[in-house]
Specification:
The protein is an alpha+beta fold and 118 residues long. The protein is built from one helix and eight strands; from the N terminus they run αββββββββ. The N and C termini lie far apart (59 Å).
Amino acid sequence: MTLMMARTNHWTALLVGAAALLISTGAEAGSYRFNLHNSTSQYVITSFKTKENGVWSSNWLNSSIQPGETAVMEWNSDEGDCVVPFRVGWKGYETEQFQADWCKVTNIYMQDEGFTWD
């Protein structure tokens, strides 16, 4: 009886440990972050939108991003296509549309013309 209880406790401990590992891994993987940098000389970013399933999202930004400022952006998901179009709105200028492979992006640097990423 004692040997059986020891084996049961051992398996229970392994299962609880495996479940904890899966939960912690899922929490990290479930939320994808990147930084949106306004690296322009004078242009203010007023909106950021993504297009998924043929529909543009609402504006991700709560406030404008001034030149030299950075906003931390959160997808709140790790599902979907890696390559997703995005639009950036500028104060006093037309919205521009771009595309990026979000599975590889950590930082988006909006510049006077176009963008770069790393």
